[in-house]
């Protein structure tokens, strides 16, 4: 369900306003149709890259429990970071710092 969304016939896209009201993006109809049939859980066996999953502890779009289900299905090695006091878009400066630290730590540890 898109919160604050509206169809834009001229561009072939939905205008999407995030729940916090800070971001507004266009999402093509095709992207939404593709997303309806995508299930990351089905692709875990064929993953070739070393995965880093990042979840926000207060995410209403992709709850961390759903990220955990994906993490549990992935083969080892795998990494997961949970950004505390954050919502889906990691909008605060602290969230941005925590996100950068999670990515930096992942990159350092995979060498």
What do these coordinates show?
With 111 residues, the chain is an alpha+beta fold. It contains 3 helices and 5 strands; from the N terminus they run βββαβαβα. It has a 3-stranded antiparallel sheet with strand order 1-2-3.
Q: Any low-confidence stretches, pLDDT <50, length ≥5?
A: 1-9
Number of strands: 5
Mean pLDDT: 79
Residue share in β-strands: 15-25%
Counting H and I runs of at least 4 residues, what is the number of helices?
A: 3
What portion of residues is helical? Answer: 25-40%
How would the global form be characterised? globular
The major pleated sheet works out as: 3 strands, antiparallel
The radius of gyration computed from the alpha-carbon positions, rounded to a whole number of angstroms, is 16 Å
| Coarse structural class | alpha+beta
Strand order of the largest sheet: 1-2-3
Order of helices and strands: EEEHEHEH
Distance between the termini: 40 Å
Summarize the structure.
The chain is α+β, with helices and mostly antiparallel strands and 111 residues long. The protein contains three helices and five strands; from the N terminus they run βββαβαβα.
Topology of helices and strands:
Layout: E1 5-8, E2 13-17, E3 24-28, H1 29-37, E4 52-56, H2 64-73, E5 79-83, H3 93-109
Parallel strand pairs: 4-5
Antiparallel strand pairs: 1-2, 2-3
Question: What are the defining features of this structure?
Answer:
alpha+beta, two-stranded parallel sheet, globular, disordered N terminus
């Amino acid at each position: 369900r898109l919160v604050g969304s509206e169809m834009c016939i001229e561009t072939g896209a939905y205008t999407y306003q995030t729940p916090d009201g800070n971001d507004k993006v266009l999402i093509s109809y095709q992207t939404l149709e593709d997303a309806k049939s995508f299930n990351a859980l089905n692709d875990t066996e064929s993953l070739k890259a070393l995965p880093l999953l990042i979840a926000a502890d207060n995410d209403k779009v992709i709850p961390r429990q759903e990220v955990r289900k994906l993490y549990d299905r992935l083969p080892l090695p795998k990494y997961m970071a949970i950004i505390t006091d954050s919502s889906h878009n990691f909008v605060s400066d602290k969230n941005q710092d925590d996100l950068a630290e999670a990515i930096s730590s992942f990159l350092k540890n995979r060498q």
